[in-house]
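seq as requested:
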Amino acid sequence: MKIGSSLPQKVVNEVWHEQTILRLLQLVELPLLDVLLDGRGSGSQLRSVDSDPDILFTCNYLDREILKAFSDSQADDWLSAAVDCLEFLPDQMVVDASRNLATCPEETEKCKRLLYDTVVKYYNQNREPLLRNHFFDIHTGITEFLVNGKLEQALEAIQLSLKLLDSRSREELRRLLCFMAVAAVPTEFRLQKDIENRMAVKRAFTKAIVCHKSLAKGKVDLLVLFLLDNQKDVFKIPGVLHKLVSDKLAYILHGRDPDLDTGYTFCQRLSSQECSSTVQKTTKDELWTLLRTIHENPKLSTKEKKRLLGQFYKSHPDVFIQYFGDCASTVYT
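struct tokens:
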């Protein structure tokens, strides 16, 4: 974004994070905001061998490069997507896969079986799901959209929630979904004899993507299949968010108060006097409602009603007198 080039990167990042949260709150009702406010992406970045010369000549690095070369030589989207996933696997699993592949370079189906089993083995280990559990309320809101057929809202909410993930988790999820999509094609390499490929990848990788005991299995499956079917779109930035960020950065750049002119407003600005007056009026209205409920409740016995009215009078005599007028002193005695 050109307009952000004149601002410190930290400011630009904070604006993206803030506006993502604000837009998400417009779509999904959340009981608590602490998770969003504290959940800034802090995951590690993808390993770059160019920035770490110490690993350039290690066996592990060579095995990874051999796998990449193997993938490039095959001109097969399935193999390329599988090898891309291996970047997130531990070195030993990558070494084993690389050396086993060397024994079957011309047997494509055997290579695919080996790679698929390797990826499945890794993602079936006990590990935190890629869709973090501290975003559970967001995921619940998204599944409600899906259940009710609100697919556009579901897609935007997913796009926003993925924007809040740390860069490593987001890239790992992107590669996994890409591999799942290719492997799910019915005419591709058969993953299991008894079920179609689409259901096989869902069964194999669902736990690695989202896993929470409070989210029903049916909703989990619905969410994973939606991610699978829309894997090319879920990582795009919503146009609404682009505009929000662009507008706010422009106001900051020109020294104006962006909170007055951009984004979403969740409250009305009040002076201290207006705030005090509003609090007093709201309190009085609620007390008046409570008093009327006690006074007009036919289920309360006369004795119980007088007891409650007496307690109310001791705590709020002014409201009590305004409500009952001249007969206030006889109501609770």
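Residues 41-57 have pLDDT under 50 and may be disordered.
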